[in-house]
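Last lecture ended with a question: if I hand you only a sequence, what can you say about the shape of the protein? Today we answer it with a concrete record. The protein is MarR family transcriptional regulator. Below, first the input exactly as provided, then the predicted structure, then a couple of comments.
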Amino acid sequence: MSGTRWLDEEEQHTWRSYLRTSQLLQEALERQLQRDSGMPHAYYMILVVLSESPGRTMTMTELSAILQYSVSRLSHAVSRLEEKSWVRRLKRPEDRRTTVAELTDEGFAALVEAAPGHVEEVRRVLFDPLTPGQVRQFGEILDTILSAFEYHRAAEAEGSPALDAAAQ
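The predicted structure:
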């Protein structure tokens, strides 16, 4: 590999601002959900994803991939959500090896109750400081970064020769 492309002063400032902002945002959302709803942000995200899926169900594998949670982390979280009767795990009749997580009515009610406070906190810490134009620009920037991640992930999965050459 040739020389390292070090961050210049502006990039270094932007990188560190991003890291700090990301940390503070996650902490604010975690505090708000714990305070108002007694649930960690990770559990909230599981409920959200299940609520948006057909039949409020999804395989554990799909849920893990969407949330970018390890299988063990997701399994532990779903166990806690089962204890609250917010989620239940089922086996698919056509494939008993596949475990499906299903959002219960109680879980949906907990999500409906938690959502307004969560959305208000997201708005307060992320969107309120920005102008509408900055929100659009921020969204475009994030879409660009996510597209690059998805491209590289797909290329890695296919064993792309272009990525192999870039690594040399």
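Comments.
1. The first strand starts at residue 57 and ends at 59.
2. Residues 164-168 have pLDDT under 50 and may be disordered.
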